[in-house]
Design brief:
Elements lengths: L6 E6 L2 E6 L5 E6 L2 E2 L17 E2 L5 E3 L2 E4 L2 E4 L9 E3 L9 E5 L3 E8 L9 E10 L2 E10 L5 E3 L2 E2 L2 E2 L10 E3 L2 E7 L5 E6 L6 E2 L6 E7 L7 E6 L6 E6 L5 E5 L13 E6 L5 H4 L4 E3 L4 E11 L1
Antiparallel strand pairs: 1-2, 2-3, 3-4, 5-15, 6-9, 7-8, 10-11, 11-12, 12-13, 13-27, 14-26, 16-25, 17-20, 17-22, 18-19, 18-21, 21-24, 22-23, 23-27, 24-25
């Protein structure tokens, strides 16, 4: 079997996406053969968590240690340079298909209770393609006997075919962004950049944007546009997602460096397990859900 696991190709009227079982995420997404995410080969380990579902927390937990109720929990560091537990526990697990059609696939992942996160969850994602592009609907149930802390994010890397990242314009519907310390952990808040469509140029971003402004349909939309306005990508997210992480791929290896912009919808910011900011508490049997998607325009 390929390193990224079993694959499902879904399509609709020129749209096509490939969903991989390892990480439960999107590996490829295109319209009429033009790729709009920076994907990877089926027999390749997803670089930089490309396309993965990030749960039960997105971003970093400093020192891998947090308290929930009266109990302190300790997780192993998977980013030793920052002494952090990063991007949750389901990114390298296999997800199973529970419903497949030509234009959609639903995957499930049963996360067992374990040291550091003794809370069993059942996660389901329905990936679909249609007139609006790519859509992901996430459902997470607490299948344990006690309440648990929870957050979710997703990690797509976006590309605009035919032009370099430095020429793209970025618009983020946020009033604030988080500042970080030398371990990339939040340590403050400042006014957000890129509130208006602005050329990225040589700006380096690995930045969490919050206080999102929403359109009349209650969706928040991050927009990437190329220099001559012939290609545009919109990442939209519903009210379950309070934050966007935007990352200009500066720490990726080889030709992936600064080739794509990761726009990551997140229910909570990094280090929320310690700060409690927008952290969800799921009671036994409770369900969390959130929907987001990618819409190209040519």
């Amino acid at each position: 079997m390929a390193l990224s696991g079993e694959q499902w190709t879904i399509s609709y009227s020129g749209w096509e996406a490939v969903i991989a079982s390892v990480g439960g995420g999107v590996r490829l997404f295109s319209l009429d053969g033009r790729a709009y995410i920076d994907g990877y080969d089926d027999d390749e380990i997803a670089p930089g968590a490309a396309g993965h579902v990030l749960a039960p927390w997105p971003g970093r937990i400093g020192d891998g240690t947090y308290r929930f109720g009266d109990t302190e929990h300790r997780l192993p560091w998977n980013e030793p340079a920052t002494r952090s537990a990063m991007h949750g526990l389901v990114g390298w697990l296999r997800w199973e298909a529970v419903d497949v059609s030509d234009s959609a696939v639903s995957l499930e992942c049963a996360l067992p209770a374990q040291p550091g996160y003794p809370f069993p969850l059942l996660l389901r994602t329905r990936w679909s393609v249609g007139p609006g592009g790519l859509r992901a609907a996430h459902y997470v149930s607490n299948v344990g006997a006690t309440a648990c802390p929870f957050g979710l994010g997703v990690h797509p890397y976006l590309r605009l075919p035919g032009s370099p990242l430095e020429e793209w314009r970025l618009k983020v519907p946020a009033k604030t962004e988080l500042t970080t310390d030398d371990r990339m952990l939040p340590n403050g808040v400042t006014d957000a950049r890129f509130r208006d469509s602005t050329v990225i140029g040589d700006t380096v971003l690995d930045t969490t944007f919050g206080d999102l402004t929403r359109d009349a349909d209650r969706m928040a939309r991050v927009v990437l546009t190329d220099a001559d306005d012939t290609e545009q990508l919109t990442v939209w997210a519903d009210e379950s997602f309070h934050w966007f992480q935007v990352y200009t791929s500066d720490t990726l290896d080889g030709d992936r460096r600064r080739r794509a912009v990761a726009v990551e919808p997140m229910s909570c910011p990094p280090d929320a397990m310690r700060t409690g900011t927008d952290l969800v508490t799921l009671g036994p049997g409770e369900l969390w859900s959130g929907i987001w998607g990618i819409t190209p325009r040519r």
